[in-house]
Known about the structure:
Strand content: 5-15%
Structural class: alpha/beta
Radius of gyration: 18 Å
Strand order of the largest sheet: 1-7-6-2-5-3-4
Number of domains: 1
Oligomer: single chain
Number of helices: 7
Amino acid sequence: MINVVRSLVFYAGYFFAMLISGVLFLPIAPFLPLAGRYRLLNLYNHFLVVWFRIACGVRYDIQGRERIPEGPCVIQANHQCEWETVFLQVMKPPVCTVLKQELLRIPIFGWGLRLLRPISLDRSKPARAMKQVLTQGVARLGTGLSVLIFPEGTRVDPGVRKRYNKSGSVVACRAGVPVLPVAHNAGERWPGRQWVKRPGVLRVRIGKPIETQGRTPDEVLAEVEAWIEGQLQEISEVPRPLVR
């Protein structure tokens, strides 16, 4: 019962913060340069990370912040729930996120996303989506933005393993920037298919940047997947499958 009450309190703050952002920040954001726009709208993500910890009794164990590179990179992380999409925005701003275009249609939330120049994909057209990721991803990196790509392509429940897509590694190799791997167990605290949150330790591991110069995307992807899955074996409370 206590987790239900905590979750209700959390969502009350969640939607209140979204409303405040929509009323106070969205009218101003279009008139700001991208960097200023990002700092303003990212206040919502900062609040959500803190509020989730306070309201739901979650403790953060985040290791590896010192490994985050100064320049642009391609961030690749496992995808279990909404929490990591929020945290990764505040971990290394500004970052351009590769996401499904349906998210841009959500009132307030989607309007704010549009202002941050994401790469929005129509997942019903995979060939076109891949071309879009490659061209726009390299272009965004060229402007100094980092790019966030979830190699699993969609949310995957804890304890389930899905084949990794190499689009993020291709973008990094073409742009000549490193890949920053990130592993976490956020889905164990914020279940992707349930609204009731669970207290406990949310662990995040940020890896050493993986260089791409002179390497193939397949080589880079293999290293990314091996590192993330190896970390998940250590930090997950739900057992990981050994093979796909």
